[in-house]
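Subject: Sanity check before I submit

Could someone independently write out the structure tokens for this chain? I want to compare against mine line by line before I put it in a report. The sequence has 439 residues.
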Amino acid sequence: MSKVDTVLGTQWGDEGKGKLVDTIGSKYDICCRATGGANAGHTIIIQGKAVAFHLVPIGIVQPQAKCIIGNGCVVNIFTLFEELDALKQENIGVKDRLYVSDRSHIVFNFHQICDGLNEQNSGSMKIGTTKRGIGPTYTSKMERVGVRMGSLRNWDRFKEQYMRLYNIYRNRYNLKDYDYEDELNKIHALLPELLPMIIDSVVYINEALDQGKKILVEGANAPMLDIDFGTYPYVTSSSASIGGIITGLGVSPHKVGTIYGIVKAYTTRVGEGPFPTEQLNEMGERLRKIGHEYGATTGRPRRCGWLDLAVVGYTHMLDSFDSLCLTKLDVLTGMDVIRVGRKYLLDGKEVKGIPSEQQDLARVEVVYDELPGWSEDITGVRKFEDLPVNAQRYVEYIEKTLGVPINFIGVGPSREAVILHWIVCCNTQQNVVYLYIYI
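---
Independent answer below. Compare away.
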């Protein structure tokens, strides 16, 4: 029996998970999404063109791979078909390759409207959501009134469930002039294409594992946005940690294989909430400009700051990463000094983990280490030993601080701009021995 390998973020999302999935995806038979919805934005470069995915797994670009949108996801049917149309324009075939769990919940247009109203009515306490209807859909799920994809197999039953849910939201939000019949008609028109995609994904995935199929899961968002472990309430509405992968696909913890953690060489976040290493100055603007830090889903400028290893250490504690991928190392080129947040102090005392109250996290004092920068262009480098010495030291500093090997290093936006950096790491007390193998 094979196991499920997983790619997870380590910060507040937008770390570059798609780049690793695109790099290693050709080795897998099945690629999955397990949580979230169209609030996630994964961008890869295909033939010099940036292509953004919000719902469909990036693995769809791998011609050998089947793709699954798992039971833990919430699915906007219209967004799904918009992405399928975009894939067809790129000559990427999806027929008999993309499947949606019959247990995944449906995002309706009124969910999106209510998402916007929630933000509008929250004033200074707004979360900064993508307004894609994700939160209200998960609310429907938890209230046990949501509508699942499997109900589309029986149109009369689906309409009954839809109307019950719509009436709840119409009364709760005083919705007026909402054309529910138009939404129903549009969904009905898509059924000939949609119904063949809807499967029992739990059985499909577990049978595939029994058959020895290799499965890769593309995590959405990141642990610092996790509904339980993130900077609550400034979080997403689902589990963005390894636990969400298990429940979002219906696999046993014993079937979890390698867990890859994606670390951006600096830190970004979109939306509201505390951000201890944020740089509200020229450095923050420089990182945003050079790193093209604008949300793939919303287009909003991302908040930027120094790498925060207190955050990454915390998410490693939660998810036990076997391997790290360091992305956007090239963005740091040209800096004389690079600062890294190593730990937090709160009221003069060292903080273990991340404070659960956002008011406390907002006032922590960050303890920084300073490392020398480099000026050489690294976008063409493909071997670790060819990186500038100070860039190598930056990578090694992160590895030694976290105790996790960095096996992939992103040095540019293209698919080829990756250093494969395989390490056998042996810790003996404080002595760390590294063996570098280049592929």
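---
OP: Matches mine. For the report I'm noting this point. Residues 155-173 form the longest helix (19 residues).
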